[in-house]
Design brief:
- By secondary structure, the protein is an alpha/beta fold.
- It is built from five helices and six strands, in the order E-H-E-H-E-H-E-E-E-H-H.
- It has a six-stranded mixed sheet.
- Helix 1 crosses helix 5 (about 155-175) and helix 2 crosses helix 5 (about 155-175).
- The longest helix has 23 residues, at about 155-175.
- It is globular and about 45 Å long.
- About 40% of the residues are buried.
């Protein structure tokens, strides 16, 4: 199942929260958040920026991997799948990453009830990660994707990161008070 919200739509945050609630309605353990990307290219920094903002908005009651201080790149994901299954065996993984798309899709936030393949927009063939994926379309898909990610506006990435981190923080706050109470780390 897939949902898409334009970042300029005032209901984008609410839409992401509702989708997360739907995807995780039968879960007993809090999911972990994996924010993928690098701070070396503005367009690729959506994940680490989201992780950083999310850490600032929450009080450590759940696991967040990937921040501007400690980014997790697409290449490192292959090692993390095993780590997550051993460390958090019963937790769903919410993967957050930047993506490329059609020119009219720039600014869309997409949430899927399935894994994502990081690096796909840069023609990398890496393993899939996550049970739920949140992707922000930051640039137009082209042969020169990496250079386009360097030409992406920081404001676009920051605003998308704010919406995603706000949604995740509100989602965890609402579920922490009902389902996940006393399961904090």
């Amino acid at each position: 199942m897939e949902y898409a919200f334009n970042m300029f739509n005032k209901l984008a945050k609410t839409g992401l929260i509702v989708a997360l609630q739907k995807f995780l309605e039968n879960e007993n353990k809090p999911p972990i958040v994996l924010c993928i990307g690098s701070d070396l290219a503005i367009g690729d920094s959506l994940g680490p920026m989201t992780g950083t903002l999310l850490k600032q908005k929450t009080s450590g009651e759940f696991f967040i991997y990937g921040t501007l201080k400690k980014p997790i790149t697409a290449k490192e994901v292959q090692y993390l799948n095993r780590f997550f299954r051993e460390t958090h065996p019963d937790s769903k993984i919410i993967a957050v990453d930047a993506a490329v798309g059609e020119s009219g899709d720039i600014g869309l936030l997409k949430i899927y009830n399935k894994s994502l393949r990081p690096g796909l927009g840069a023609n990398k063939k890496l393993c899939a990660v996550g049970d739920i994926s949140i992707m922000g379309i930051v640039a137009e898909k082209s042969v020169f994707n990496y250079s386009l990610l360097n030409l992406t506006r920081l404001n676009l990435v920051y605003k998308m990161s704010e919406i995603i981190s706000d949604s995740l923080a509100d989602f965890f706050q609402s579920f922490n008070s009902t389902k996940f109470i006393n399961q904090a780390v």
